[in-house]
């Protein structure tokens, strides 16, 4: 018999590695969540991601387990990622968290609520953070943070801000047992429609998104052709035209247009000042704001 070709051997090795990772996930958590299913396409990355998650959420550290999951909820809610909010609400209860805290940030202890300001800045405008924000959290008092606690809390916040982007970028849907439950469906930038269908990643929502991309690409092509015809058009004028076409195509909804009232109340209850969002760090011709550096 002919020996298998190298690509076939590599493919079989990847499938075996992925299968083992899924088995490990099922044994440790009793399920294979959709983030794992998507990351499983890259087993080595999934393995590294798991190690990070395990260190942050399960290993010894200054913060108790239920508070770690609550901080994850706060971070995900800041980006309105209802998938992660729902996932960690379940984890929070499993590790003995107080169900009353899940009624909203106003029901959490003052010490956790004091993270709201730095969570907001880290999520949307991290360059505005100053040493005073850190000092305010570390000052002595009944609800003060130790340096070790604060470091772990900040790592959790930034980790889940990034993970929310991954969830949205991949169009990850809620697990079957969560579907229809509280705080599970990722919000759509176009109102009530979901960014992906209930059949899995993609579906009709993916087709709609692809169609929008095709429309935008066609408009970009027309802009390039018009540039060739109008030699006097500057690069800045072309950039302005492109941004106008992009906005009109509804492919990207500007953050200042999106109405926070359309978000599910079970995500908003963990968010204070929902109108606070991203703004450009600096614009041409303006003096750059001071940066906070920590070595």
TrEMBL record:
Keywords: Cytoplasm, Oxidoreductase. GO terms for molecular function: L-leucine binding; oxidoreductase activity, acting on peroxide as acceptor. Residues 177-207 are annotated as: Disordered. GO terms for cellular component: cytoplasm; nucleus. Its main location: cytoplasm. Coiled coil: none annotated. InterPro entries: AhpD-like, Sestrin. It catalyses: a hydroperoxide + L-cysteinyl-[protein] = S-hydroxy-L-cysteinyl-[protein] + an alcohol. GO terms for biological process: cellular response to L-leucine; cellular response to leucine starvation; negative regulation of TORC1 signaling; positive regulation of macroautophagy; regulation of response to reactive oxygen species. It is found in: Cytoplasm. PANTHER family: P53 REGULATED PA26 NUCLEAR PROTEIN SESTRIN (PTHR12474), SESTRIN-2 (PTHR12474:SF2). Belongs to the sestrin family. This is SESN2 protein. The lineage of its organism: Eukaryota, Metazoa, Chordata, Craniata, Vertebrata.
């Amino acid at each position: 018999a002919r020996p298998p070709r190298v690509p076939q051997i590599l493919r079989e090795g990847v499938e075996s590695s992925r299968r083992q990772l899924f088995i490990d996930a099922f044994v440790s958590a009793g399920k294979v969540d959709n983030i794992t299913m998507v990351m499983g396409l890259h087993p080595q990355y999934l393995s590294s991601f798991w190690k990070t998650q395990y260190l942050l959420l399960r290993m010894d550290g200054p913060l108790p387990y239920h508070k770690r999951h609550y901080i994850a909820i706060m971070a995900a809610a800041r980006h309105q990622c209802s998938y992660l909010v729902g996932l960690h609400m379940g984890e929070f209860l499993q590790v003995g968290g107080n169900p009353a805290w899940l009624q909203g940030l106003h029901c959490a202890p003052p010490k956790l609520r004091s993270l709201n300001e730095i969570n907001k800045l880290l999520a949307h405008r991290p360059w505005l953070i100053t040493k005073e924000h850190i000092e305010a959290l570390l000052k002595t008092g009944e609800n003060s943070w130790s340096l070790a606690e604060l470091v772990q809390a900040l790592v959790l916040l930034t980790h889940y801000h990034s993970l929310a982007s991954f969830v949205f970028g991949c169009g990850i849907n809620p697990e079957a047992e969560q579907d229809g439950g509280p705080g599970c469906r990722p919000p759509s930038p176009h109102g009530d429609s979901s960014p992906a269908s209930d059949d899995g990643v993609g579906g009709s929502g993916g087709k709609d998104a692809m169609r929008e991309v095709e429309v935008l690409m066609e408009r970009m092509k027309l802009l390039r052709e018009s540039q060739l015809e109008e030699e006097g058009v500057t690069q800045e004028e072309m950039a302005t035209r492109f941004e106008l076409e992009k906005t009109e195509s509804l492919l990207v909804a500007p953050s200042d247009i999106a109405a926070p009232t359309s978000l599910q109340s079970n995500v908003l209850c963990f968010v204070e000042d929902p109108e606070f969002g991203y703004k450009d760090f600096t614009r041409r011709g303006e003096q750059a704001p001071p940066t906070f550096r920590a070595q």
